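Input sequence (396 aa), recorded before submission:
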Amino acid sequence: MQISFITLALKNLRRKVFRTAVLVFAIGLFVALLVFAVSFTISITSTIDRVSQRLGADIIAVPIGARTEAQEYLLESRNTSFYMPAELIDEVKAIEGVKNVTHQTYVSSIDGLCCDVIPTMLVAFDPETDFIIKPWLNQAIGRGLRPGEAIAGAGTADNLGLGLVVVEATLFNTPFSIVGDLEATGTGLDNALFMTQESFQLIIESGLSPVREDEISVIFIQLEDGLDPDYMGRVIEGQIYTVDVVTRSSMGVRWLTTLADINKIFLVTVSLSLLLTVFLVWSIFSAIANERIREIGIMRAIGARQSHVVLLFFLEVNLLGFLGSLLGVAGGTWLSAHLAANFELLSSIEAGLEIWQQLLIGLLGMLVGAGVCLAGAMVPVNRIKKVEPLLAIKDA
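Predicted structure, token format:
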């Protein structure tokens, strides 16, 4: 019985191919806009959250005034340099509630003058205290770095063409062996070369580096369990006047502020598109109901119940919703994938979606598309199911 209803629904949709196509296309446009807007928003927020989680620090202390530069490096992979006295490590460590600290020093290589690799950020870390690089280092080569050795982030390894072989390189006139590459993290750390503080000392001694021996760039801070990073950030800034802090909640705040404004535009656009689509579905199904009132009257006269009429229209509505939503999900996914490079906000932080996120957004698009179709057709279908058979045949 159900198969015959599906066949009948398909035949009804094929009666007016152009009208069916217009309806499918309209639903598809709305769903594509929705999928693109949701993908845009989630890709940025999840990327910033992923960066924050993978750094493993509750707070990042940077030289005063260098808060933006630090985030540009960690989120956008921009080569940048900023330094503060290394003695601040002990001052941070002495603050009550601070559990662990580690530090890193950044310097940009200069192609041709002192280095034979493409310009990239060199990151020196302390293997004794590090909790940022070590987990990835153990996974990549199963041991620590030796003096004179460096390891590349995933993006830098691609640029260097690094494979299974060790690459010999010169950094600030100092020979280094690049012994491997780290797994991609989705952070600015992917586009860097890492070495221990001991190896970095060789670069400082070359006299070509702008950084001095007693300088560092950032201090990563882990807090005791249960402490509020925002409160502790204010405590650290209050006790050490020469540092600014970036907490997890404030990571990427510049991008999130811009995103909030964009989301308002998306909300208005999607809302208007939703209303237009519902109105279009309502008007087309109202026309369909008027055209088929005699047909429905005859069906009711020969024994069809209201539930049969509802089932028939329900199948037509869902077929339209399914086709339109499928078209919209494909279009929205394609737009979000191919237009990302044209948006500074997306390309600067290399924002992207995981497969499961894309699947969930696609599912959301399918459900909303079907819901919009049902909402628009509800009133006409409810009206036609109550038609009196004899009156319908007579009036038609």
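Checked by second reader. The chain has 14 helices and eleven strands.
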